[in-house]
Amino acid sequence: MNSEQKKILVKAIEQTSPWERIPTSIEGVFVVKTPEHNNIQTIFVELNPSIKGQPIKKRGVYLKNINELEAFQEIINNPKIHELLDTITQYYSRQSVTRIEI
Questions:
Q1: How confident is the model at residue 100, as a pLDDT?
Q2: Cα 34 to the chain's mean position, in Å?
Q3: Please, what sign has the CA dihedral across residues 46, 77, 73, 12?
Q4: Contact 41/33 with Cβ under 8 angstroms?
Q5: What pLDDT sits at residue 97?
Q6: Shortest CA distance to 43 belongs to which of 3, 67, 9?
Q7: Per-residue pLDDT tens digits for 51-102
Q8: What are phi and psi of 23, to 5 degrees?
Q9: CB neighbours of 72 closer than 8 A, spacing ≥ 6?
Q10: Nearest to 32 by CA among 41, 47, 21, 23
Q11: Taking a C-beta distance cutoff of 8 angstroms, is the pair 62, 50 a contact?
């Protein structure tokens, strides 16, 4: 991020109301400003991918720093998570309900 982009980001955050989502050029990534608490401003990066233009979740994953991002990446990249989701999808995915003729 160059210095001009950083200035634009800071200005956008300063002009934004608390809990307003600021879209970024990265699909599914937003900047969220929270209300000040004890004169401390907290800013989050929200990850909320979309499918066909609609967000997957009402609220995405809120990250405050790189350590949180790395912790999520470690979990998401664990192959056992993929196995778990495959099994859940296999047995509990939505299936069409059989129509009963009466």
A1: 66
A2: 15
A3: negative
A4: yes
A5: 64
A6: 9
A7: 888 888 889 999 999 999 999 999 999 999 999 999 988 888 776 666 767 7
A8: -70, 150
A9: 61, 63
A10: 21
A11: no
